[in-house]
Amino acid sequence: MSRLTLYTQETAPEASQARVEKVQKNMGFIPNLIGTLAGSPQAIETYQTVGLINGQTSLNLAEREVVQITAARLHGCGFCVAGHTATVIKGKVLTDAQVLALHEGKPMDDARLQAVATFTHAIIAYRGAVPDALLQAFMDAGYTQQQALDVVLGVSLATLCNFSNNLAQNDINPQLQPYAAGTFKGSV
Q1: Dist. CA 92–CA 31, nearest whole Å
Q2: Can you list the pairs that 117-122 forms with residues at least 24 positions away whose Cβ atoms lie under 8 Å?
Q3: What DSSP assignment string belongs to 1-12?
Q4: pTM higher than 0.90, yes or no?
Q5: Domain spans, the chain
Q6: Which of 49, 77, 104, 139 is the most buried (most CB within 10 A)?
Q7: In 3-state terms, the chain is what percent helix, strand and coil (to 5)?
Q8: Domain Carboxymuconolactone decarboxylase-like spans what residues (predicted)?
């Protein structure tokens, strides 16, 4: 049970209502993250705006989702792990084996995606002050300086979501529970 108010389209502050309505229409339900963020019109606006910007980076969808799942796991946000797992499984963006590796913090079967996971971990662990060798390993995997910064952007988006969920102690919505770490064993 959330320790912060979970707003609906009807109960959200007026400045958040249209944003909540749009999510309800697009997803068919209101994820608890959205219900929480709706309590601050600026927080929900930031989440949705930065989410759109993150979708325009030089990283492809699989790479962006590796950032999101890795950050959520490291930040202890089971809600975001489940939400992003649902995205990648339903969209056939990552394989079951890749998702399970991300859930468990184990090596992935794709060297480039593993480089993104490792670099994301380093960005968080070193608070951006990544040692030269780790930055070079990311570059040696074929990534650019722009993509290194795009990982930082993805981590910033994840941090907003992960920390908001952790603050609220949100339950995972029933629609996302089959994708939660420890529950997800393969395609749902």
Answers
A1: 21
A2: 117/66, 117/70, 119/143, 119/148, 119/151, 120/66, 120/67, 120/70, 120/71, 120/74, 120/151, 120/154, 120/155, 121/70, 121/74
A3: --SS----TTTS
A4: yes
A5: 14-179
A6: 77
A7: 65, 0, 35
A8: 56-95
